[in-house]
């Protein structure tokens, strides 16, 4: 569960993303500065991969997601969701086969997913196609990602995540910078994912009982639909969270995914492994 959060607003100084002193509300319009060039922004995309342990073709889609991750590096975040509403995730109440989480199911249903939606499938940057809807076949993921990469938005995102060896509590600081000359209303979502979850996965050749499930969505740290974050032009907004990891996850294998959307479209996504102090 989320313990607390706070907002801090900072000025973006000449060519830097460093924090300056906090500017009182009534004085911000008097601050004069030169913003970072928005054309220098590199856009990072979010790939949601819908999967299920009973889906024999999902490992092929996972290989494609891995290939794209290798290609784009830190500029692509992969999150694998096993939605309860699709029969490919059916686990018959066996904990060892249950890779689902309620938030993944909520997002799947919002995108129009049903118990008959064919797997594997996915989505890039929460974008809904006018004719095809939210779901993209895995052989089109690369095209959607390259199009987003070539169309950067004037928003920057960074975050730090720290934990302690003797505790399941973590804290994170997320900075969102608006490089535009107009104010924006961003939405921040923070998700918990886990790598190296060893379990069963059906394949065309049979069931692999030692399959490594990676990028597996475990929980949403923010409310599932995110926090609204209004940001004035050329300003940085910081949000700080504390969170207690669920008992079912291995802390050393967990990542914190931060996602910023504007008008419903993901404009930046970043992933950080928890740093243990």
State the main characteristics.
277 residues, mainly beta, 40% strand, globular, Immunoglobulin-like, five-stranded mixed β-sheet, 3 helices
Plain-language structure description:
Residues 11-34 have low confidence and may be disordered. It contains three helices and 15 strands. The protein is globular and about 55 Å long. It has a single domain, classed as Immunoglobulin-like (Sandwich), CATH 2.60.40.10. The chain has 277 residues and is mostly beta strands. The chain has a five-stranded mixed β-sheet with strand order 1-12-6-5-15, with no helix packed on it. Strands 7, 10, 11, 13 and 14 form a five-stranded antiparallel β-sheet that branches. The longest helix has 15 residues, at 58-72. It has helices at residues 58-72, 102-110, 141-149, and strands at residues 2-11, 45-50, 76-81, 121-124, 155-163, 169-178, 184-194, 197-203, 206-213, 216-220, 227-231, 235-244, 254-262, 265-273, 275-276.
Detail the poorly predicted runs: 11-34
Task: Give the averaged pLDDT, no decimals.
Answer: 88
What is the 3D form? globular
Secondary-structure-based class equals mainly beta
Distance between the termini: 21 Å
Helicity, as a percent range: 10-25%
User: Strands across the major sheet, in which order?
Assistant: 1-12-6-5-15
**CATH domain fold name:** Immunoglobulin-like
Note the beta-strand portion. 35-45%
* CATH C-level name: Mainly Beta
Alpha plus pi helix count = 3
- By DSSP, the count of extended strands is 15
Please identify, by name, the CATH architecture: Sandwich
Pattern of helices and strands: EEHEHEHEEEEEEEEEEE
Name of the CATH superfamily: Immunoglobulins
């Amino acid at each position: 569960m989320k313990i607390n959060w706070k907002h801090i607003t900072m000025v973006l100084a000449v060519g830097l993303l460093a924090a300056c002193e906090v500017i009182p509300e009534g004085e911000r319009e008097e601050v004069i500065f030169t913003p970072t060039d928005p054309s220098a922004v590199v856009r990072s995309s979010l790939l949601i991969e819908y999967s299920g342990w009973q889906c024999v073709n999902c490992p092929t889609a996972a290989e494609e997601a891995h290939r794209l991750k290798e290609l784009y590096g830190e500029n692509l975040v992969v999150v694998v969701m096993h939605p309860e509403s699709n029969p490919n995730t059916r686990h018959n109440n066996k904990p060892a086969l249950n890779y689902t989480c309620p938030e993944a199911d909520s997002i799947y249903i919002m995108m129009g997913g049903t118990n008959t939606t064919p797997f594997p499938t996915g989505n890039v940057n929460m974008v809904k196609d006018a004719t095809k809807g939210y779901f993209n076949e895995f052989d089109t993921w690369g095209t959607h990602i390259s199009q987003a990469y070539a169309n950067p938005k004037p928003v920057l995102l960074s975050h730090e995540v720290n934990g302690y060896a003797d505790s399941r509590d973590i804290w994170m600081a997320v900075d969102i910078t608006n490089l535009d000359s107009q104010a924006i209303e961003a939405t921040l979502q923070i998700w918990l994912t886990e790598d190296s979850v060893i379990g069963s996965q059906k394949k065309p050749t049979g069931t692999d009982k030692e399959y490594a499930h990676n990028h597996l969505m475990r929980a949403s740290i923010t409310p599932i639909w995110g926090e609204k974050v209004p940001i004035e032009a050329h300003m940085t907004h910081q949000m700080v969270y504390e969170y207690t990891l669920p008992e079912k996850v291995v802390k050393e294998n967990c990542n914190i995914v931060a996602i910023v959307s504007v008008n419903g479209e993901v404009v930046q996504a970043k992933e950080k492994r928890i740093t243990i102090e």
